[in-house]
Write a structure and sequence with these properties.
By secondary structure, the chain is α+β, with helices and mostly antiparallel strands. The chain has one domain (4-112): TATA-Binding Protein. The protein is 32% helix and 29% strand. It contains three helices and six strands; from the N terminus they run βαββββαβα. The protein has helices at 14-23, 77-92, 102-112, and strands spanning 4-8, 27-30, 35-40, 43-50, 65-71, 95-97. It has a six-stranded antiparallel sheet with strand order 2-3-4-5-1-6, with helices on one face. A hairpin with a 2-residue loop joins strand 3 and strand 4. The longest helix is centred in the last third of the chain and has 16 residues, at 77-92.
Length: 115
């Protein structure tokens, strides 16, 4: 399945992501990196935290974070990914980056419109 991202205008720490995942009923694969996911029934979405390096190469001074959402191919996984991404945007602000995945963005918009 294709991935999409939530881009947050500040650094989200691994500890914050671990807390978010646990609060969303998720699981944690690696507390040091904050990687993990959320599963409900057959649906599953993996979430990975990426903090881009500062232009001068100093990770601690990075200006943003990217949460990469990778839903599995199991039924309901895309919908679960949308729900958890919405929760992340609510918690940290930011925007969803579809990176040219128009079909996925269309699904999200239809969901938002109740379709």
């Amino acid at each position: 399945m294709d991935s999409f991202s939530v881009v947050v205008g500040r650094v989200v720490t691994a500890d914050e992501l671990v807390s978010f995942l646990r609060g969303s009923g998720g699981y944690v694969n690696d507390e040091a990196t904050g990687s993990g996911g959320v599963a409900h029934g057959e649906a599953n979405v993996y979430i990975d935290l990426q903090v881009p390096a500062h232009p001068l190469g100093m990770r601690a001074d990075a200006l943003s974070s990217e949460l990469v959402f990778s839903p599995s191919r199991r039924e309901g996984s895309v919908e679960l990914a949308f729900k958890v991404a919405d929760e992340a945007v609510t918690q940290w602000g930011g925007v969803i980056d579809w990176s040219g995945l128009d079909w996925l963005e269309d699904m999200y918009r239809q969901r938002a419109e109740g379709g």
